Each structure stands twice: as C-alpha cells, then as structure tokens.
Amino acid sequence: MKILIVSDAWEPQVNGVVRTLKMTRAELQRMGHEVEILSPQGFRSMPCPTYPEIALALTTRAEVGRRIRAIDPDCLHIATEGPLGWLARSFAIREGWPFTTAYHSRFPEYVHARIGLPTRWSYALLRRFHNAARATVAPTPAIVDDLKARGFTGARLWSRGVNLSLFSPEGERMERGSAPLFLYVGRIAVEKQVHKFLELDLPGEKWVAGEGPELPRLKARFPQVRWIGVLDGQALASVYRTADVMVFPSVTDTFGLVMAESMACGTPVAAYPVPGPIDVVGKDSPGGVLDTDLRAACLAAMLKPRDAVRRHAEQFNWEAATRQFEQALAPRRAQALVPPVVGGVQVPGGSA
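^ Glycosyltransferase involved in cell wall biosynthesis, sequence as received from the core. Prediction below:
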C-alpha cells in the first residue's frame, strides 16, 4: 500500500514523536509498503509559541488537499493535531476519505501546565478532532482506556519499539567520575517537571540531556548540574550507558520513549507510578522503580541488575508495534487490502 503520514512534527526536530514516525516508516517500508510524509518542510512556516523547535506550516486546505491528491495514497494517517493535521482532516472529511489519527501527547495537560486552560476544554477539542477518524491509535493500554473513558470512540493500541541494536549495553561510554550518576533525557519544559529531579537530594552527579524553554531558568538555578544539550543516535546511546539511573519525572507523557531506550542500554529507570511509566517500566519491575517518592525510586533503581533491565526492554520491538499501526489503517480502496502476488505467492503487508 501507499501510506501517507501527515505530521506537524518532523525533521529536524529531535523528539519521541519524530523518532517514532521515522522508525515506523522504516518498518513499513521493510514490510513492502510505500510511505510518504507530509510535514512542514516545503511550506512557509512560523515557530510554535513556547516550542520554537516545531515549525507550524502556514498554508491552506486547498494546498494541503492538492498535495494529498498528488500523492494519491491508499491510506491516510494524520499523526498530529497541529495546522497540517487539522487541514488534512478537513480535506479528508470533505472528500469522504477514511483516515486514522494518533494520540502522541497529553496536550490538555501540557496546556494546563503552561497557561492554566481547563483540561476539559482541550479534551473537547481533541474529541472533535479524533472522533472523525476510523481509529485513533495510542501508545499504551492505560492511555487507550483513559481516552475511551473521555469519549474517544476509536481508541486502540499502537505500542512503541526500541532500536535494540543502537540502544544496547555494549558500546562507548562518556567520561565520568566514580560517584553515582543520575540522568534526565528529554525536553526541558514545565510539563516535564525536570525541576522535581534536580531538587532531589541525591549522592553523586546529575546530568541533563535536552533543550527547551525552561533551560535558561533551570541552568541558573542549578549550576552544579552538567547540561549536555540535545543528543541523538550513538551519542544518546552512550549517555544512557554512562548513567546509573535515568530519572523520568514527567506525569503527563503518553509513553516516554526515553525510558525504553534507557532500559535497552541496561540503565534502570526511576519514575512516578503514573500512565506511561506504569506501562513501560511496570510496577515491581526489573526495568526500574516507580514510587511517589522520586528520591526513593532513584536510590532503589541503582540496585537493579543491568542485564535484567536490558531483558525487560526487549519486549519493545518496532516490528510488532508497526503491525499494530498497519492493522489500524483505513484503506480508501478495496484493492489496497489485497496482498501482491510475487512468484506465485501472496506476500502479506504489500499492496496490489
């Protein structure tokens, strides 16, 4: 099949949504599908307020529709609720095209943390967006259940994977001292609660990898912390391996891909017992420790055997996750569902 993914989040951004879409595209292509991405690249754009790394496309429904028609996909997936997502949704509804959507971020909680907008208002808007779709895929069972309870009619599971070759216990490490090392990886923004980690009375060092609007304030407040910026690929895997514990203080993430990546490198996770960590790390888990007392979770996580942490992460694989994504798609044409015949044998996952 030819699959079009419309996303307001794409390169050159470095975040969990972009990594998820890139890995999913690669797996879909390996399965025999053709995958196109419609992103802000190629449109005039403006920086997103409070999140300038994200470019917001400045365009029209007619232009988005023209580009979608030119691609002529068998399946349309709208990955984000930004300007391109709303315009693609409007086009699809007007043309009678089926489509699917994804719920990547707990946007209502993010907005509430930043400007105090009641979450019920944001959820009402998101229900309108997603309930027009044939399915809305979300990354964990807890998030799927939460969406259903809030009136999202098509919520279903699309889990996540980890590049287990890249993120592994074997490989380079960064120079460090002998004292314990606690690490945070991710966006430095108010909804991520990075300050909750930095305020903890912990032995040893604290490192932070990432950028965001809270960075200047937190750097000034915590000058003793090592700030190492945005990392990707081998450099990111190296910093995970170097740490003794990866601390995840957010209570608003839908999944938290950094937790799975850290565990794949053998580094246990300390987090609060909330959706995201509950599904990725788990309670009473070899992968880390969840506790309402984050300091206690950090100290207890140091005792986790790193080989057991790695084994726990191996449950997250992109092939299985991408099969879930593929099965949720809503083809426009019946023939898109028919596997191709190659050498007299029908090949699953192909297009007609």
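The chain is about 35% helix and 15% strand.
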